[in-house]
Design goal:
By secondary structure, the chain is α/β, with parallel strands linked by helices. Helix content is about 45%, strand content about 15%. It has 15 helices and ten strands. The protein is elongated and about 85 Å long.
């Protein structure tokens, strides 16, 4: 067949599918003209079908398939280039077809049609697009869209007092671009943490705990206002970052250095450059004593026990005497006794007038040491929301659970093995907070 005729037919099929999908997008409440944009069309199909992830993969694969088809048309049949292009096209067609089938399944559900429709969609997608797009009896099913933003809890309208002493957090939203879509990672989180409080940050995997902490510290700025005392964390970030200590889950210490040298290096980075050497040594020795590291200050890091190494990692951040101290799973890899001892030291730090926020996957063994608990949960749109903030004792009453782990399971989604009640508690907490009852 003449190559130009092949291109003309290909263009006609693409045009027919575009016109049909334009109508389908409109029926699904989306902008029809997006059907005219390659790659983006496939992603929008995924959104219409309620198959976001599959739509993304399909959009990426379509670009490769298009290149392969055009290469096969223009390369001479039987040539090495043609064979390579055909082979690569075959490799792409397989996953492209698999993801297309998943999206077509979703479309069938969205339109309330039998899933056998997937067969004609795979064999002749342009014709199906026209039939579904222009067919008057092809309408979206009752209850569609099934996971719309309206299903998620509404914005509470609560705002934390920015003049209150302590840490005031007002996060309107934190967004990020993901392929063709701006995703809301956090929304409507407002609270005040008083000085001297030790707070447990609770939430399932992917709920937004780390994103929340990054937004609070200014490491990843959100649409938010965060104040620590009289200072605005975002506006005064260059100076405030030294007043905030953050200890990641993985330690960043060199095994070939001594404990004292490790702390000395941390002090040179985090303490003021004009601090006198005797004052710096005094601070290093004070921190060594606080974390029980004085007896091993001359030992190599590689020779430390797991608990000692963890305490050293924490001491490196605490060397600057931060007002806000955040720790991500500081008890990871520690047994119950060592973990308890570590949290008791953190309790002492909080009692000295600091704010300590901790993430731990074993909260119940140290729950009595915390003043408050913050529960972050994913709502119907997979956005991190505030499901509770208050005392550990009241949290058990609020959720009707006996332990922190049971509270966590109540807000986890069902596909994660939880009860899927996040939206219920987000709404419940918002109502209580709006009424001034929490």
């Amino acid at each position: 067949m003449n190559k130009y005729l092949e291109l003309a037919l290909l263009f006609a099929f693409v045009l027919a599918e575009t016109v049909g999908m334009w109508r389908i997008f409109s029926k699904c409440g989306r902008k029809g003209w997006l059907a005219a944009i390659p790659m983006l069309r496939r992603y929008q199909m995924g959104l219409c079908a309620g198959r976001d992830a599959e739509g993304r993969q399909l959009a990426l694969l379509e670009s490769g398939v298009a290149v392969g088809i055009f290469s096969c048309i223009f390369f001479k049949t039987g040539s090495v280039s043609y064979m390579v292009a055909a082979f690569l096209l075959l490799l792409l067609i397989i996953p492209y077809t698999i993801f297309s089938i998943r999206v077509y399944f979703g479309l069938c559900d969205a339109f309330g049609r039998n899933r056998f429709w997937v067969v004609p969609w795979v064999l002749c997608d342009w014709l199906c697009a026209l039939i579904w797009g222009f067919g008057s009896d092809f309408k979206t099913a009752e209850g569609y869209p099934f996971d719309d933003e309206d299903a998620a809890p509404e914005v509470s309208g609560i705002e934390a007092d920015l003049t209150a002493p302590g840490l005031s957090i007002n996060i309107t939203r934190r967004t990020a671009m993901s392929l063709f879509k701006r995703k809301v990672l956090l929304r409507d989180i407002h609270l005040i943490i008083p000085m001297g409080h030790m707070v447990l940050l609770l939430g399932g995997s992917g709920s937004g705990k780390t994103t929340f902490l990054n937004a609070v510290t200014g490491y990843e700025k959100a649409n938010a206002v965060i104040t620590l005392g009289d200072s605005n964390v975002y506006k005064e970030y260059n100076s405030m970052k030294y007043d905030i200590g953050f200890v990641p889950q993985q330690d960043l210490v060199r095994g070939s250095d001594t404990v004292y040298r490790t702390l000395s290096d941390a002090a040179s980075l985090r303490l003021p450059a004009d601090m006198k050497s005797d004052k710096r040594r005094e601070r290093i020795n004070e921190v060594l004593d606080t974390f029980g590291l004085t007896p091993v200050k001359s030992s190599l890091v590689d020779k430390l026990s797991g608990g000692q190494r963890k305490r050293l990692s924490i001491a490196m951040e605490y060397i600057s005497d931060p007002t806000l101290f955040i720790l991500d799973e500081p008890d990871s890899g520690l047994d119950g006794v060592m973990a308890r001892a570590l949290f008791e030291k953190l309790r002492v730090i909080a009692n000295s007038g600091k704010i300590v926020i901790v993430i731990t996957h074993t909260p119940d063994r140290v729950a009595d040491l915390f003043d408050d608990v913050v529960v972050i949960a994913k709502d119907a749109k997979r956005t991190g929301r505030l499901a509770y903030y208050g005392s550990v004792y009241d949290a058990r009453i609020f959720f009707g659970k006996k332990s922190m782990e049971e509270i966590l399971m109540s807000v986890n989604r069902r596909e994660e093995g939880g009860e899927g009640r996040a939206d219920e508690f987000v709404r419940k907490y918002s109502a209580l907070a709006a009424g001034g009852e929490v």
